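Researcher: I'd like a candidate sequence for this fold, 154 residues long. If you have to choose between options at a position, lean toward the conservative one.
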């Protein structure tokens, strides 16, 4: 994939009673950018993975975190998010979400967004498909090998 590299992790000790806990975690590496996509994993699978030294190495200090299990409380793992230390978090959710941990993810993200789709153009530290619609990330590497990305909402 040219400059794009993928590192894939999967928990294997979690009970088969909850198949969400067997989702893949994909770390996208593009130049010096790092994006962590967590799928439907919940607390137990993240707890297992966070004890894996190789996993920690790849998720540490990522730029973007796609929150696990649609940003629900059942998937919020403080120590995992602290290791990821995201600039910002994306939550793929809808209007029916009842147990959101969005405020917790926002407190642990660094960048403030000003979005025109937000009521009153407020600043937020995360984006959600519920509030922002389609979220598109465009990553690039310039002539000097420096990586950057732009975020678009529609």
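Model: Candidate sequence:
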């Amino acid at each position: 994939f040219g400059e794009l590299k993928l590192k894939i992790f999967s928990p294997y000790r979690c009970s088969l009673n909850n198949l969400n806990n067997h989702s893949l975690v994909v770390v996208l590496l593009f130049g010096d950018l790092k994006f962590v996509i967590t799928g439907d994993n919940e607390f137990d699978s993240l707890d297992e993975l966070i004890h894996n030294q190789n996993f920690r190495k790849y998720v540490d200090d990522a730029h973007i975190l796609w929150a696990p299990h649609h940003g629900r409380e059942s998937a919020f793992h403080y120590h995992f998010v602290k290791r990821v230390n995201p600039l910002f978090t994306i939550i793929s959710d809808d209007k029916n979400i009842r147990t959101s941990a969005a405020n917790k993810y926002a407190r642990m993200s660094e960048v403030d967004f000003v979005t025109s789709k937000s009521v009153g153009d407020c600043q937020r530290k995360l984006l959600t498909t519920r509030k922002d619609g389609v979220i598109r990330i465009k990553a690039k590497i310039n002539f000097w090998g420096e990586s950057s990305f732009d975020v678009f909402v529609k």
